[in-house]
Design goal:
The protein has one domain. Helix 3 runs parallel beside helix 5, helix 4 packs parallel to helix 8 and helix 14 runs parallel beside helix 17. It is globular and about 55 Å long. The longest helix is centred in the middle third of the chain and has 36 residues. With 450 residues, it is mainly alpha-helical. Helices cover 87% and strands 0% of the residues. The protein starts with a helix and ends with a helix.
């Protein structure tokens, strides 16, 4: 089978999905460079990092209960039932978002005090407007994921991130300094822009689709509750270090240094995110989800494709960490260098962990995902508390590295038992993918851009 045929769907889907995923961390990198070099103090950068962590937490909660269930049931339902699935997903999305906004409004003063970040209180109050905009934005976004409309996702995020970066740059040119509150307002404007752009691509899907069915609402909720619980564990795993640093060490400046390192490391997560978005709808299809051999192939191939990009990036970070930090933020943030090198190693295990969750959820085993992610999250929190107290900032890196190793061992053992997946095959695919990749590019690019 020719390479162009064999990989056509993956390359076509991955092209726009990859561009969409790339636009987010790249714009984040540019914004971080503007803010860290001159626009914000290091303490303010730490507060901004905490704000972004909180928005990520909110998004993870909403995604856990709705997004995965929407994608699964749209791919499993007859055409006549899809309007009920879409209506149920919108109802759950709106309900969860409103509850989250109310809880955030109540607990914001306590949260700001706990995190040693008083500016955070007013920032989160301004975010309440953005919470309302998140309802249509996320609904449109998840529908595009469900139907693999990656071209629409690319343009949505390009405009959302583009307007955010442009406004930050304009304010910086006018005033040099950028206030934290103005950054939240810009964040809300970016959300609104993305919502308006995304509507163009999904309006045909939502025509006459807001038909609410209690049966479908409960069906999505009961599936989503396991994914939501897993999402909470994932949330703890991803955010605990950012949340625990300032209370234990008494300042947000270490959050600033950590944020700088994570901005670059997030680039290594792009292959896993991109391929995971393609893998979930494929593995959720009825003919695939019950076929262990296909699941084994999809998992090993997907992780291998991620590793072929991640490994060179990790090597680059290990060799040139000082140059990376200097370009991103300047000498004031050199304390992030050892942390950056340490967490770069976790990018390799993250490629395996990401696709583990995708496979478990898409094959109807969210309970397995819940148990393993909860174990990893609890271990991570305990390790963080010990290592931050004993080794300060770098202790967060030690805890993350050990947590990833534990998670890798547990998840790979389970995948081997259920699907006969061998993690070594992923490395073989990664090596073999380099020559294949160049052949694919040579075959695809000439006609792709005519």
């Amino acid at each position: 089978m020719p390479h162009s045929v064999k990989y056509s769907n993956w390359i076509h889907s991955g092209f726009f999905s990859g561009l969409q995923k790339l636009s987010v961390p790249l714009s984040g990198l540019f914004i971080t460079m503007i803010l860290a070099h001159k626009a914000l103090t290091k303490q303010e950068m730490g507060v901004w990092a905490l704000f972004m962590s909180i928005t990520a937490i909110i998004e993870l909660i909403r995604q856990g209960l709705v997004k995965t269930a929407l994608i699964k049931f749209i791919n499993h339902s007859d055409t006549v039932d899809q309007k009920y699935v879409i209506g149920a997903a919108f109802f759950l999305n709106a309900f969860i978002t409103c509850i989250s906004a109310l809880l955030m409004f109540i607990f914001t003063p306590f949260l700001a005090e706990f995190l040693k970040a008083p500016q955070l209180e007013q920032m989160l109050n301004i975010l309440q407007i953005g919470m309302l905009i998140m309802i249509p934005f996320s609904h449109f976004e998840w529908l595009m994921y469900s139907k693999t409309l990656f071209k629409g996702l690319f343009w949505t995020y390009l405009f959302r991130q583009g307007i955010t970066l442009t406004l930050v740059f304009i304010i910086f040119l006018i005033n040099t300094k950028v206030s934290l509150n103005s950054l939240v307002i810009i964040y809300n404007i970016g959300l609104l822009t993305g919502t308006l752009i995304s509507y163009k691509y999904i309006k045909h899907l939502i025509t006459n689709s807001f038909v609410f069915s209690r049966q479908w609402i409960m069906k999505l909720f009961h599936f989503g509750k396991y994914v939501f619980a897993s999402g909470l564990s994932t949330l703890v795993f991803r955010s605990a270090d950012q949340i625990m640093l300032s209370p234990i060490l008494g300042t947000t400046i270490f959050n600033a240094s950590q944020n700088i390192a994570m901005r670059f490391i997030n680039l290594s997560d792009l292959p896993s995110q991109t391929l995971g978005d393609i893998l979930f709808p494929k593995s959720a299809q009825t003919e695939n989800s019950s076929n262990p051999a296909k699941i084994k192939y999809y998992y090993e191939k997907t992780v291998g494709a991620s590793l072929c990009i991640v490994i060179p990036l990790v090597i680059f970070v290990l060799i040139f960490p000082k140059a990376i930090i200097y370009v991103l933020a300047g000498p004031l943030y050199y304390d992030a260098i050892p942390y950056l090198q340490l967490i770069a190693l976790t990018s390799i295990t993250l490629a395996f962990l990401k696709q583990y969750g995708v496979i478990m959820d898409s094959t109807g085993r969210p309970f397995f995902n819940l148990i393993t992610t909860t174990f990893i999250a609890v271990s991570h929190v305990l390790l963080l508390y010990y290592f931050i107290n004993h080794f300060h900032f770098i202790g967060a890196g030690y805890a993350l590295l050990i947590s990833h190793f534990l998670g890798f061992v547990v998840t790979q053992s389970l995948l081997y038992k259920l699907f006969n997946i061998n993690f070594l095959n992923a490395f073989k695919y990664a090596i073999n993918f380099y020559p294949e990749f160049f052949k694919i590019i040579l075959e695809k690019l000439p006609w792709k851009f005519r």
